[in-house]
Design goal:
121 residues, 5 helices, 60% helix, 0% strand
């Protein structure tokens, strides 16, 4: 790659990585009381991303009639399998749910919701 192309590529990369500055005369952004608390404000990191609450919510929706008949039985069986997988992954690491395990469980839950669009979460 020649020097000119390299300079252009570096300039574009820098421009894309630089945050947009506030417009003159624009009111300052209101400071949030949780601005310094980080992304897990109000909850621990584990509770914030723990898929167990999502599993319980989906079970409640199914039991309240979001799905009927064989669809409800199949969805509950799939949720039970996902919940067992979650318990296994937590036990495997001495009570700690690893990030990649959390992502895998959430992908399985996403696939379940996609399979049964009547479920909301």
């Amino acid at each position: 790659m020649n020097t000119f192309k390299l300079a252009v590529l570096a300039g574009l990369t820098l421009a894309a990585a630089t945050p947009v500055l506030a417009q003159p005369g624009a009111p300052p952004a209101a400071a949030s009381p949780l601005a310094d608390a980080g992304p897990y404000a109000g909850a621990s990191r584990t509770d914030f991303y723990h898929p167990d609450s999502r599993i319980k919510q989906l079970q409640a929706e199914i039991q309240q009639g979001a799905l009927a008949g064989s669809e409800a039985r199949h969805a509950l069986a799939q949720l039970t399998a996902i919940q067992q997988d979650l318990k296994y992954r937590i036990a495997r690491h001495n009570g700690d749910l690893r990030d990649w395990d959390r992502e895998l469980i959430n992908q399985k839950l996403d696939a379940l919701v996609k399979q049964y669009p009547a479920l909301r979460a």
